[in-house]
Design goal:
The chain is 34% helix and 31% strand. With 172 residues, the protein is an alpha+beta fold. A hairpin with a 5-residue loop joins strand 5 and strand 6.
Length: 172
């Protein structure tokens, strides 16, 4: 990603409480990440308290049994976790890569779902402090996947590597 675009995304993320900027972010991220295009994620909230995305109950997200596909649910868990970290650390200064994902499924989803990350500021601030003296940190995030009755359908645990772009090597 070029520096101008990542700086623009950082500015939009900083003001993501605004409905207009939230819609702009939804468009940029959903169209800019080809894998996400068919899922039609809706950005519900990206604030300092939490990040919430909606996975619609549409044909492209369904499995052969008519429920939401397990991989679509896993992506719903990964996506808001990554956005939470982008909001906190930015894209222009740090590279974020998901290193691990673990999903626990509890119920089949037969409706749209929400992926919700509650922000732990103290923990994220500690990782930010570590980045001042270390080349990279690993951050574990938890996303609850909820149905419209706010029942937990799944829990997604992701581990992210955050590294200063100046420390990134692009060797083959």
């Amino acid at each position: 990603m070029n520096k101008q675009l990542s700086k623009l995304l950082d500015k939009l993320m900083a003001g993501s409480e605004s409905k207009t900027k939230l819609v702009a972010l939804e468009t940029l991220f959903n169209q800019g990440i080809p894998f996400n295009i068919p899922h039609k994620f809706k950005f519900v909230e990206i604030s300092h308290q939490k990040t919430v995305l909606k996975l619609p109950y549409i044909k492209k997200n369904k499995n052969h049994l008519g429920g939401l596909h397990a991989c679509a649910v896993a992506t719903l868990g990964e996506y808001p976790a990554g956005l939470t970290l982008v909001k906190k650390f930015g894209m222009s200064r740090y590279r974020l890569i998901m290193r691990r994902i673990q999903v626990e499924y509890f119920k089949q989803a037969k409706e749209a779902l929400l992926g919700e990350v509650i922000v732990n500021h103290q923990e994220l601030d500690q990782f930010g402090q570590q980045l001042q003296s270390e080349d990279m940190v690993e951050v574990e995030m938890t996303t609850n996947i909820l149905n419209k009755s706010e029942e937990v359908i799944a829990v997604v645990h992701t581990v992210w590597q955050i590294k200063n772009w100046k420390k990134v090597s692009f060797k083959g």
